[in-house]
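INFO batch 0412 | record 1 of 1 | parsing
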Amino acid sequence: MRPSNASPVIRKRHQGDDNKKAPLLPLCVPSDPSFAGRRFAVCHEDGSLFLPEPRPAVRLSVSSTSHPPYERHPYPTFYLSGSTSNATFDLVNESPERSSGRLYPKLEGDAEAFTISVSGRDNHFIEDIKPNQVANITVRWNGGQTREGEGTGQDDREQGPRTNVAFLRISRDVWVLLIGRIQPPPMRPTGFSEIGLPRGESLPAFLDNLVAVGNTEAREPLAALRASIERIVVVGTSSPATEYSPVPRRPSKVMVPDAVLAALVPRDSPPVFLAPDTLLHPVMTVHRVAVDYDGDGQEALLLDATGSHTHEWGGRVTRYIFEVDGSVQEETECPEDEKNCVRELFPSLSIGEHTSRLTIGDQEGRLLSGEDHVVQVTTIDEVPGCALSLYPADTGKDTVSEWLHSNAGALISDPLHQKEEALRPQWVTASITAAGDGRDPDAPQPYESCRIVPDRADSYLDSQFKEHMIIRAMGTIEILDDGSLDSMKLDVKGGDDVAVWINGKETQLANDTRTIHLSRPDKKDYDKRVSFEVRWLVGEAGSSPDGVRLEVKGKNRWYMTHGQLDWPPFINKVTPDVMSPNGGQEMIIHGVGFLNPKSLKTAKLLLSGRMVKRDEVPDGGRAEAGVLEWSGTQITYRTHQIDETGLSHLQVETSSGISNAYPVKVSAAGQMDDIKYKSPKTLLRGLFSFVDRHAAQQEESRILDRLFDEERSGGEQNTRAEWQKKRDAVVGGFGLRGAWGPDAKTFYVGTADGNLMSVRFTANDEIDPQSLKFHDTIKKQYPDHSLIGIAFDPLRDPSDPHLYVSHAPIYYWWRKGITCFEGENGYAAFMAKISRLTGPDFSVLETVVEGLPNGNSDHNVNGIYFDNDGSLYACSGSATNAGWPNCMLGGLPESPLTGALLKIDVRNPKLTNKIEYVYYKTRELVEKPNQVEGDRYDLADSAVGIFIWASGLRNIYDATYTTKGETYIIMNGPNNFLGMCVNGEPQSNGCTAADFDTWDEIENLSEQRIVRNPLYLPKPYKVPRSDKLKNCQPVIRPHFKTPDRIFRSFEGAHHGHPNPARARNTNDTKQWYHHVLTPDMEYTPGWEIPSPTTGISEYRGTCFGGKLRDDMLVSRWRKGIYFLDLPDDENANESIEILTSDTGEQNLNIVYGPGCSIVIVSFVKDEVTIITPEEESLDKFEAEELAAGTAVIYDILPWRAPTQFDIPFTVGGRRFKKEKKPAAVRIGGVEAEISSFDDTRIEGIIRAGHTRDKPAKKLVDVEVIFSDHTRALLKEAFMFLNAPPQSDHDL
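INFO prediction complete | emitting tokens
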């Protein structure tokens, strides 16, 4: 069944999954000196990034000034006034050996108020500064320039004196700061200590931060300065100066993601420059509302700080301080490992409003506090927001609309009535859990919100609620202080139709505005409080991206609340909904009304005649039945033994009533919770240095000596020569990607060092150590490249395989000390390639496509795969975080082929082997393509056989082609502080989308503050004078973070990540936008999954009763293996679940293998491991076969092959016993030869002469006949393909 794009439910399968912190980058190795200078980043054991030591940068300094700087901290600062409007200084290259290369000084801030000249010329760049030489720079303040609406000088008393500030950025760490002011400088400038600068904070929070400086001498001047601040200018390493002001005419949001400098500009005194004191980033997750369901006057709340980190390379968080209402609740230090600190706290808070704060520290003793989180702890009868219920109808929108104005009871869970008929709700909740506020940084406060927002898959609350429903909301609006209802009104948003009741009386909405005035005719005791009920008719959940909501407007303060004290229990969902009669399962019951102060002793579960009281808690032992958790909205229950009666039902009873009966099934057959895998078994283990055997002889000898000594001490008598034979069994190679060879026995691994490793399997979980080989063809030709993707051509003769590889240097420029592109570092070639390896030991190398983009990070051309026609597909990662470049991700822009799934017609004899680019605006050929200006480019018209198959993808790390002919993709989602988001085409006057050019030279920034890329480059072509003043940048929005996603993609699909270059080149409007900020855009959504995901593989086996067959396995790096559970006969909706968390915390890539095995390619520990199903778990799903002793077949490898050649195969299963051994194997009716077998595996060959009449591209059955004439059948498991003629070596 083809899946819909529904939102998944994430259910935890096994203990041990840490879903709290994801490392910044997936490809890094343990911190160790031996890894220095390698081709990847280095990380600590917890996954935090530690980049290799870059080469020393050219050291620049400022000296020989025309007059002394006004201030030297944090950078040289020149005060220019009416009497001294010029300053000249020398920029010195202090490096004795290296030239500076071309430098591009750039003014930020009040750039129009200053002029720069280099060596007497108005150049835009400094060509070069030789070792120990200087460049002379003069800056001039232009004086009387003003802003619109401001005065012209000191005589304008209302506006006051005009002050200009500017930041002259010469390189990332060399700045000159400029002040232009009519008044001469004070005799003695005030020095200030460093202060934490804002990263997305609100302006009031930043102003509050000014008085939090650690230096007590600075505290008082800053506090005094705060009251007179007219504006604040903030600039980042890759973000230009952005201005903020308390004055309403300017925005008050701080949106510079990488702030490094700030200027505080008072009205009547000189400005003050500040620099950051730390790169710490405290992150604390807190729920905004906690309800005291048991009535004891307090409630425990989770403060989760596990997402905190530092942006300082090599730094680490060593201290955590939790504060509530100004008092320290917990403080721990962890100098060795932050996991030793308390990072999750559960304080019990009393009824009322509380403020929580997190402060973290690093190994240098620096501290930084995060923003304050306001938490409301409420009573059960004053819950913020509104009550909500959903009434879906199976018969369509027209039928459900008849219920919109029907009668209803007083409770939110009551049915709607029409005569004798009743429409009952299927979900009851409250807006504090349904509003989706966690996604929306601008969401209203809990007491101001009554709304329900659709999820990414366009459904409400659960994937079953997509269309044809009534949403009902109930609550009370109370006017605070001395206000009155007279001036207040209720706005009703969303829905196809609406009905409203005020104080129990249905009220008509104004047709044009959908508003109702809340004033009452009887003003006695009710002029401050009014009750409401609103019903929305919803045809499709996704038709209104903001969902349905109420907005109260007026000049008074107000609260919206509802009570839950008298709510009877209502069950929304039970997981799992199939119970084993043996008991011992953990069942989670979701709903409302499960607890109130009157039901503490009477609340109970009712299940198939058994009553389980709330206080029936297990005394101990994992298998003991009882209640594990009981709150107002969730019950976790470990089941008792129960009779197998087929169908049953579950209810909750309290003093307020008894709940709806939720159906559950009782079955002894294996269920999803019975699926278990063994712990990983290591097949290969080694060190990076083993890959280069000549350089590793000494290290290898030491390891062999140690292994020999350990084994000998254990009592075994082995000679050193015997141990030498076993040497290869301990050799790995920093694996990135795995693939099965066409012989159905050999497994291949592409490694980070550029080698290709192969090893032959002799059983489903055993290898032949002597078969281990390293193929260094790529490494010899491209010593800096990593083998990132590998795939065998499925139409080739298995005896003469063609292996395609995607390869590129990872962190290439970063490893050379170029973390961002400036000056001499302004060139980045398109270095990624796809090559073909053939011949003996894959020694023949041919370039298929070169000139593909590769990032200055781990975003590259990643996984590759083939479809059934022999076309190759390549995952081309994005260059940016969310469409706009940032130095934290390497500083490169998107280009025509980034952020997409590429289709490459490798069978086309005219395929373009070397990609050529042209300038979009002139169509001139780019002689030396440079990724730094990659978004100026378009593909040359001469390009043949290379297509964008699917777009809108961020870092698309892997994809798989399934037996059903579908493509599934995993995509790493955006992260905070890795770059701003593009969300709109150019909108300035005179601009069209076609005018976009990242490197536009903006001569006048007097009003609009924009976000530019990290580097200014002059245009390589002539620009008309009329275009020089255009600001044709796309709309830029703040950074944000989202989970990873799984997509079922198709040709032409767009998945929501912006690419300005491709949007302009193809005139595709949707590629200017990001789906998170524009949810109503046309895009193909996917399923959210916790990050980072690093591998995807189809589960092709029928083990576990076939419950996982055709589902998608997903590797979450070092955290476990998930699966996307697609719809089948038992499950109508999709969900994402955890298969196992026990992967040794090393899984990078995963590949499905025979017998339902999963091969795990490790990177950090340099291992190849395997997990296989637990025998007892398999037995639960094979009770009948086990009792009869009959065999079962799970899978066949490969699952497709060409009919023209002999096809080796491996069949996986169980109970292939010698006493009734396999006598024949038939694949699509074709009898194959059996070469060997064991209890779980049959190897053989399908001869070519028997398969030519078989239909191609159709799945056929696999059958095994045993010597006792019993049979085992595997339906629709293998596909014959028709291969083209093999005479042309390029095919």
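INFO post-check: The chain has a mean pLDDT of 79.
INFO record closed
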